[in-house]
Write a structure and sequence with these properties.
The protein is mainly alpha-helical. It has ten helices and three strands, in the order αβββααααααααα. The chain is 64% helix and 6% strand.
């Protein structure tokens, strides 16, 4: 009798999992024999394909392998990148027009020399900026992130203005190139600092690679939309300037929201000042103030004992 009851109650459950590593595994099916055989699919083909596509854009082990502020920052950063590349098509169109593309009077050597001066001034500016501010970029990543995109907007504005000042064309485009050179240095350096901040599992290289995929996708979408916008606004200066200024406002807003999402765990001069001001006002240590998540974890509470 006991064996019959045991047989009636016995069941076997098998689970099918799919993935390329332990952090990418997900359950696809559950097979149960109790006593009849039943198969329950946990994910359809569409979900499987979606997961595979997502792996090209998010780090392995996401979201557990990155800090909580990663998603918010990347969302706004992608939106600002999209607006940047849309604007870039408008400014590039204006720049090529100022150089003389499509005009019979323009010469190849003249256009080449102008482009050379533009690039040369930008390279020189990048070296000078690195010399004066290179060591300050890590500790003030949020500030320089905003400054970098502001300088990029100024550079594009110079390109858009270049056809309006033909006599000062070289000066205008060189100023624009100089402005964008600051962007290249500051943006690259702060991105490296933020990548280290996001990495929770020594996966900075993976985060950087996936950020590159996100940037590439934003670039392709932005350039495609920019081409459409340039085609529709061609020959209409009012529409061009309205589109450019609107995108610039959105670009700076998206950058502001992106850096507001960041919760850095390191100290710089400004965050140290906030910390000391809190101690002077309350007489309490940093941990008692409850701000450790926003300022950093490199400070011991013993460092902030009141002085008798």
């Amino acid at each position: 009798m006991g064996e019959e009851e045991l047989t009636d109650c016995a069941s076997i459950t098998l689970e099918e999992w799919n993935g390329s590593s332990s952090t990418k595994l997900f359950r696809t099916a559950t097979i149960t024999a109790s006593p009849s055989l039943s198969i329950r699919r946990s994910a359809n083909r569409f979900n499987h394909v979606w997961r595979r596509v997502l792996q090209a854009f998010v780090p392995e082990g996401f979201p557990g392998s990155v800090t909580p502020d990663y998603v918010g920052f990347q969302l706004w950063d992608t939106l600002q990148g999209l607006s940047t590349y849309i604007k870039m098509m408008l400014s590039t169109q204006a720049l090529l027009s100022a150089i003389g593309v499509g005009e019979k009077s323009a010469t190849v050597i003249g256009a080449t020399f102008q482009w050379f001066l533009r690039d040369f001034s930008g390279m020189l500016g990048g070296i000078l900026f690195t010399f004066y501010q290179g060591s300050n970029l890590d500790s003030n990543a949020k500030m320089w992130r905003l400054v970098a995109d502001l300088m990029n907007d100024i550079g594009m504005l110079m390109d858009l203005l270049s056809p309006l000042f033909p006599s000062a064309f070289i000066i205008v485009v060189c100023l624009g190139s100089l402005s964008r050179s600051f962007t290249g240095v500051a943006s690259g350096a702060t991105r490296a600092a933020l990548t280290q901040h996001f990495a929770l599992q020594d996966n900075a290289a993976d985060i950087s690679a996936k950020e590159g995929s996100q940037e590439t996708m934003a670039t392709m979408m932005g350039m495609s939309l920019g081409m459409l916008l340039a085609r529709f606004t061609s020959g209409n200066p009012l529409a061009i300037w309205f589109s450019f200024l609107s995108l610039t406002v959105f670009h700076m807003y998206a950058n502001y929201r992106a850096v507001r999402c960041l919760v850095l765990n390191s100290l710089n001069m400004e965050r140290s000042s906030i910390l000391l001001a809190h101690f002077m006002q309350t007489g309490q240590g940093f941990f008692n103030g409850g701000c450790v998540a926003r300022v950093g974890y490199f400070i011991e509470v013993n460092y902030f004992k009141p002085i008798a």
